Amino acid sequence: MDTPPSANQDALLTAVRGARIEILAFVPLLNNINLASLLRAAKSERGVKVYLLTPSESYWNKGSFTGWLSAQGVALYARPKLKSDAFVVIDQRYAFVGPGVGEPNLLYAQRLRFIESGPELTGRYNWAVDQIKGLNPLKFADQLDKIRPKSQR
Fold first, then answer.
1. How many domains does the chain have?
2. What are the C-alpha distances in Å from 5 to residues 26, 28, 105, 111?
């Protein structure tokens, strides 16, 4: 019997809520307000290190919460043309993989997979760390300055 989509989303949100050390996420599009709010709370209320990696093309996507998270102090990294399934690695112990990570849509949530340890988790974690190496986190105010007309700066 398949797990209901809402249970997959609930498990992801519960895991993020329970993170104690680090959350490393690659999310091409983050328009899930529940996940965004929990990532912010993990950082600001519990001191969890939160790293968010996204394709630079998605940073300004309408409906994405990546800019909001950056303004809240979450370490946001962007590289152009990143390709991978969305994933969240929590405390380097387990991960959730699939389009249901960043999307609240229940059809996507059906394809959300749970991974507990092993080579796939390690591979995804290492891939994200490699993408972040050498990058500075984006600062929301700096990004605004790039698009804001000079007369408003």
1. 1
2. 20, 20, 9, 8
